[in-house]
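step=encode ok
step=design start
structure_in=
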């Protein structure tokens, strides 16, 4: 049921899956920039459609709510399920005469403060994102990471250091905002983070009270008190820019699943790295397979070794995208 045609698509149909090139019909799992493109027709949740329209001007001809069937071309039924990744993120379940397919896109099974929890549905074929598909990526409980974040931010404020908390503008920063807001910590947001947070609020997901970053609030004679401006939430790309380096002694905190790597603080230019991720970890990937019970698994966007791991467990698995190196010798 899966075909590689310069991108993933459902075999015997015109439906592409998260294609990064313009297509006639494409399912868009969520609104991160590496998953959206201007297609002729898009299947996505209403929240993804709104977020994607803001980011690249994408229009959505077929917004589809979770758990509602949509019949296409007579013999294809699609249904969107919550993916637990970022607001509006979805998996797609496809039913065709030859069987059923579940494509996860980016997802996680752990609970979130800002995103509906993922739902899995059994399928004959499972196409799964496997970013963290090696055993070293087992994330600690989210509540423990939240406590560590709050302690670091409070410690920095107590010591007169500006805490700068870095995470992706869409999804991670809003989760961080809720953690800090629930702990009673004031927040200021970089413009990119503030704009997405405002969209979350419009879509009915509160992230907590925040102010939008203004240079004068942080620097010069008119700067406001550190406790009032609180934690500064920003995207990771600012770590080595004047946005951060102009502070005399900032406390730079990065939130990412890659925090489990030994060199994470150097990789991101941070003082602290905490493993808060919007993706499934190794154990959740295995749990997904147990719950979906597929005949065959295709892995996508992850470690090649995950296929080897599954095959050792006697699971029929292969890469969703053909191995380009091997294709040279066909």
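sequence_out=
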């Amino acid at each position: 049921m899966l075909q590689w045609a310069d991108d993933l698509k459902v075999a015997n149909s015109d439906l592409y899956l998260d294609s990064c090139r313009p297509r006639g019909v494409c399912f868009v799992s969520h609104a991160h920039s590496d998953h959206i493109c201007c297609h002729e027709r898009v299947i996505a949740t209403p929240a993804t459609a709104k977020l994607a329209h803001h980011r690249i001007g994408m229009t959505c001809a077929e917004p589809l709510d979770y758990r509602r069937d949509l019949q296409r071309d007579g013999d294809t039924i699609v249904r969107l399920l919550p993916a637990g990744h970022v607001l509006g993120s979805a998996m797609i379940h496809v039913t065709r005469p030859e069987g059923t397919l579940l494509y996860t896109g980016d997802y996680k099974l752990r609970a979130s403060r800002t995103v509906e929890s993922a739902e899995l549905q059994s399928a004959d074929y499972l196409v799964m994102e496997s970013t963290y598909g090696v055993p070293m990526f087992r994330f600690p409980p989210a509540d423990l990471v939240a406590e560590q974040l709050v302690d670091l931010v409070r410690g920095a404020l107590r010591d007169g250091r500006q805490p700068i908390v870095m995470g992706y503008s869409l999804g991670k920063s809003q989760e961080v905002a809720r953690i800090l807001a629930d702990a009673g910590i004031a927040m200021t947001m970089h413009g990119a983070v503030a704009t997405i947070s405002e969209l979350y609020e419009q879509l009915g997901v509160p992230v907590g009270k925040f102010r939008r970053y203004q240079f004068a609030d942080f620097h010069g004679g008119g700067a406001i008190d550190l406790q009032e401006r609180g934690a500064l939430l920003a995207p990771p790309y600012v770590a080595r820019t004047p946005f951060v380096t102009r502070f005399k002694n900032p406390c730079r905190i990065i939130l990412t699943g890659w925090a489990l790597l030994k060199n994470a603080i150097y990789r991101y230019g941070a003082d602290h790295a905490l493993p808060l991720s919007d993706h499934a970890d190794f154990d959740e990937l295995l749990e997904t397979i147990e719950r979906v019970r597929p005949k065959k698994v295709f892995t996508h966007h992850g470690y090649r070794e995950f296929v080897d791991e599954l095959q050792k467990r006697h699971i029929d698995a292969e890469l969703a995208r053909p191995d380009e190196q091997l294709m040279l010798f066909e």
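step=design ok
step=annotate ok -> Residues 324-330 have pLDDT under 50 and may be disordered.
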